[in-house]
Each structure stands twice: as C-alpha cells, then as structure tokens.
C-alpha cells in the first residue's frame, strides 16, 4: 500500500458508501412500515368488500326468486283474466239471447191474452148471462 492515501481513500469511500446506504436503509424502514400498514388496510378493505359482495349476491338471488314468483303470479292472473273475459262474453251473449227470448215470449203471451180477450168478448155476446 502506498503512502499517497489511495488505500485509505478507498476505505474512506467504502465507509462513506456504507454510511450512505445505512442512512437510506434507515429512511426506508418507516416507508416499509407504511407500505405494510397500507397493505394490511387494503387487505382488510378487500375482505370487507368481499363480505359486501357476498351479501349483494345473496340479495340478488332473493330478488331473482321474487321476480320469478311475481312473473309466475302475473302469468296466472293474466290467464285467469282471459278465461274470465271469455266467460263474461258468453254470459253477455247468453243474457242477450235470454232477453230476446223473454221479449218473444212476452209478445206471444200478449198475443194469446189478446186472443183470449177476444174469445171472451165473443162468448159474452153469444151468452150474455156470463
């Protein structure tokens, strides 16, 4: 080793580098702790989101079932409504036919009563005692 300080200079530089690296590591330690805290918080948040998503999926399944039941009920009501509409049309037609029949019977009855009245008048003319 020479006396011009080269090896000492080299050692000084290595020592300075090691000191610098140690200082950087000391600065990194709190940052690493922050990263670890952020990672923990992120993990906890992700777990909470998973629970929320599970509840949403369960609610969605319940909603799907409710919509399916509602659709089935609606289809049943519509089918019954169609049947009732047909029955109502038949009843209306039947009522109209009965109404016509009643009017015809009334006319026939009135005609028969008129004929009976005329016969009665003729009978009273033939035999005035009655």
Could you please describe the fold and organization of this structure?
With 130 residues, the chain is an all-alpha fold. 93% of the residues lie in helices and 0% in strands. The chain has one helix and no strands. It has one helix at residues 6-126. The longest helix has 121 residues, at 6-126. The model has no long low-confidence stretch (mean pLDDT 91).
Please summarize what this structure is.
With 130 residues, the chain is mainly alpha-helical. The chain is built from one helix and no strands.
Core attributes:
130 residues; mainly alpha; 1 helix; 93% helix
Task: Lay out the secondary structure.
Layout: H1 6-126
Count of beta strands: 0
Q: Please count the helical segments.
A: 1
Q: Shape, please? A: rod-shaped
Largest sheet: none
Strand content: under 5%
In angstroms, what separates the terminal alpha carbons? 174 Å
Average predicted confidence as pLDDT: 91
| Rg result | 54 Å
Structural class: mainly alpha
């Amino acid at each position: 080793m020479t006396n011009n300080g080269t090896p000492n200079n080299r050692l000084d530089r290595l020592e300075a580098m090691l000191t610098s690296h140690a200082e950087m590591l000391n600065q990194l330690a709190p940052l690493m702790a922050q990263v670890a805290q952020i990672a923990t918080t992120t993990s906890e948040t992700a777990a909470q989101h998973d629970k929320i998503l599970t509840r949403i999926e369960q609610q969605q399944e319940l909603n799907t079932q409710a919509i399916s039941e509602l659709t089935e009920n609606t289809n049943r009501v519509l089918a019954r409504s169609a049947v009732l509409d047909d029955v109502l049309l038949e009843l209306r037609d039947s009522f109209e036919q009965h109404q016509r029949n009643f009017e015809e019977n009334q006319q026939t009855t009135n005609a028969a009563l008129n004929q009976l009245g005329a016969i009665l008048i003729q009978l009273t003319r033939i035999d005035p005692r009655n």
